[in-house]
Amino acid sequence: MNSEIRNLEPKELWNKFADLNAVPRPSKKEERVIQFMVDFGKSLGFTTEIDNVGNVLIKKPATPGMEDRKTVVMQSHLDMVHQKNADTNFDFNTQGIEMYVDGDWVRANGTTLGADNGLGVATIMAILEAKDIEHPAIEALFTIDEETGMTGAMGLEGGWLQGDILLNLDTEEDDEIGVGCAGGIDVTAKRTYNEEPVSDGKIAYTISVTGLNGGHSGMDIHKGLGNANKIMNRLLFDGFENFGLRIHQIKGGSLRNAIPRESFATVVVDTIQAEAFEFEMETLAKTIKKELALPDPNLTIEITKTDTPGMVMELGVQEGVLKAMYAAHNGVYTMSASIPDLVETSNNIAKVTIENGEVIIECLTRSSVESSKMDLVNKLRATFELTGCEVTTSGDYPGWAPNMDSPILKVMDQLYQKLNGERAHVAACHAGLECGILGQNYPDMDMISFGPTILGAHSPDERASISSAKKYWKFVLEILKEIPKK
């Protein structure tokens, strides 16, 4: 299956991507891919270093005639989001990604593809290995843990890099040149509760919300996609209000930076209410599916009978949590007043776990404006604290402020127009890029972000455009030729 990927053009890019995707590399578990990259750099005979947090730096000298050009840092992250469909049997810790070609797209079998940011990594690897590509001196920087905290970029010390220009290869639309990004912060609400025994005369149900598209919690947050946790809460709230539904367990979502696609709950109601409850749930499910018919046509909501559990959630806490979840903001909070069509601030209610006497609600709040980010954090904190939760924040990272006078931006803008007959879309994005963090220790480095077209990142629907990869590869090669002199 992966052999057909190796025959795609440009072969040097797709072959490196196939090599990389054979190495398990979920976030927080990058030991194997770090060693893979160190071995790769050393096999080429280049200076290869690893820092205290696990970032890898490979240095390649300029090709003849390019020695007088500015040194370029080419940067991508090694880790990938590990999401799979519920019915997919796959272990991200031990297996390589199984890829296939679907028309103009490269996809994976029921899992994330790892094109984010694997195609960027593969690009740099191909250039490091090439003997016939003109380029200035290159510092190839491979960071770790971008997807779940950006700890690689945060741990990168000043002075390790000597480059003047940084090319971040982590943008996912091939007609876009990125000049700014949002910062982010994790918001977690927790509380404990007592469990109460289930009385006689009860019937139990499993409620499942599946089939949502999910996607990147920044880049896709404005698309009106369904959030499985909010959908589940809507169902449970209705069941509680009308039938006294009691919660035994909820498990929804999996990663903070992915819009949750699935949620599962076990609940009980009075047996005498069973028929009416089932009718109400089916009716509400039809309503929700109709509302989301365009963005999420494959949404499935199932209510099935199951074995009655022994315990349920404490009544008062359950009521408070259901109301807090209903009130908690999810989705776009504000749009940018200065950049048209840019989401300024948003929140993703990413993961909800209620079981064994503990409630955990995990969110990722993003914003390109620090004050707006903290305003939304305070709104979430107030919402959850009203129901007795302890709310903490972590993983705070800064945004990247646009520099419209960037010299490398001017070079790339002109090159894109020359190659494609039209102007590129120069924009900031509502996603977390490492440029903002790297810029704290390297404030004078000229930074830009771009990449091939990737859709559905952070979900099993992730796919990379083959034709876009050709266009992007050509752009990369021309950029390296046109790097300004020192």
What does this structure look like?
The longest helix has 18 residues, at 274-291. The strands form 6 sheets. Strands 9, 11, 13, 15, 16, 18, 19, 20 and 21 form a 9-stranded antiparallel beta sheet that branches. The protein has a 6-stranded mixed beta sheet with strand order 1-2-6-3-7-23, with helices on one face. Strands 4-5-25-24 form a 4-stranded antiparallel beta sheet. The chain has 12 helices and 25 strands. The model has no long low-confidence stretch (mean pLDDT 96). 31% of the residues lie in helices and 29% in strands. It is elongated, with a radius of gyration of 24 Å.
List key phrases describing it.
nine-stranded antiparallel β-sheet, alpha+beta, six-stranded mixed β-sheet, 12 helices, 31% helix, 486 residues, 25 strands
Number of strands: 25
**How many helices?**
12
Structural class: alpha+beta
User: How far apart, in Å, are the first and last alpha carbons?
Assistant: 46 Å
Radius of gyration: 24 Å
**Global geometry:** elongated
Any chance you could write out the topology, listing elements then pairs?
Blueprint: H1 2-6, H2 11-21, H3 31-43, E1 47-50, E2 56-60, E3 72-77, E4 99-102, E5 105-108, H4 115-129, E6 138-143, H5 151-155, E7 165-168, E8 176-181, E9 183-192, E10 195-197, E11 202-210, E12 215-216, H6 228-243, E13 246-252, E14 258-259, E15 263-270, H7 274-291, E16 300-306, E17 311-313, H8 315-327, E18 331-335, E19 343-355, E20 358-367, H9 370-385, E21 390-397, H10 407-420, E22 425-429, H11 435-441, E23 446-449, E24 454-455, E25 463-465, H12 466-481
Parallel strand pairs: 3-6, 3-7, 7-23, 8-22
Antiparallel strand pairs: 1-2, 2-6, 4-5, 5-25, 9-20, 9-21, 10-17, 11-15, 11-16, 12-14, 13-15, 13-19, 18-19, 19-20, 24-25
